């Protein structure tokens, strides 16, 4: 048993070393591949939640495209720029440093990410721009509100404890849950009717929408 664990440990270390090397040598490409793989896996999980007996690999491949084309490259550039912005203004690791990164991440990148996902998936599945508008109108605010339940706390810990060179990896791993959630929403006509208790949060969602509209 100890021998098997040692072999497993050595294998994991080798994988980590190879990943670190690729991340240093080819950061954008590495993040694109990692994001694509994790978003495809998230879609597979989503299909399992939906109760599908047979995996739609075409759908998973389309989802992987979003991870590889948008999340990986754009996410890489965003987090590098975000760190530079915060470093230039606040002491690294200070409450102001962390809060600034969290607020900008959730206030700017978060909405773009959700809207981008709905637009990409709707068009990739053969929908029109009218379908995109309808999907975003029906699901954006509720999906964004749900995302705000998880991401601010996660990103606060990520920006506080995780070294900058590994923050993208942490986000990619967390995106496995995010991808599963968004892929599932994409396939629902009104997901708030399915999750028990979420209808009661519609007032909060409406307040969020009204607050943004009034600014």
TrEMBL record:
Keyword Ribonucleoprotein in record: no
Record family assignment: Belongs to the peroxisomal membrane protein PXMP2/4 family.
Protein name: Uncharacterized protein
Organism the protein comes from: Coccomyxa subellipsoidea (strain C-169)
Keywords: Membrane, Transmembrane, Transmembrane helix
Subcellular location: Membrane
InterPro entries: Mpv17_PMP22 (IPR007248)
GO cellular component: cytoplasm; membrane
């Amino acid at each position: 048993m100890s021998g098997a664990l040692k072999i497993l440990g050595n294998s994991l270390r080798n994988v980590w070393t190879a990943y670190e090397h690729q991340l240093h040598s080819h950061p954008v490409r590495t993040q694109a591949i990692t994001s694509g793989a994790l978003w495809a896996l998230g879609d597979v999980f989503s299909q399992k939640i939906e109760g599908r007996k047979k995996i739609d690999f075409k759908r998973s491949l389309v989802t992987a495209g979003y991870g590889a084309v948008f999340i990986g490259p754009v996410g890489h550039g965003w987090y590098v720029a975000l760190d530079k912005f915060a470093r230039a203004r606040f002491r690294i690791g200070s409450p102001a440093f962390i809060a600034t990164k969290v607020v900008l991440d959730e206030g700017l990148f978060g909405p773009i990410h959700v809207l981008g996902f709905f637009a990409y998936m709707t068009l990739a599945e053969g929908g029109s721009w009218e379908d995109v508008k309808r999907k975003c109108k029906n699901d954006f605010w509720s999906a964004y509100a749900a995302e705000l339940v998880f991401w601010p706390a996660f990103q606060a810990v990520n920006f506080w404890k995780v070294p900058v060179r590994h923050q993208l990896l942490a986000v990619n791993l967390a995106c496995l849950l995010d991808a599963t959630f968004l892929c599932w929403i994409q396939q629902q006509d009104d997901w708030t009717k399915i999750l028990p208790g979420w209808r009661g949060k519609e007032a909060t969602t409406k307040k969020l929408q009204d607050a943004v509209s009034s600014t």
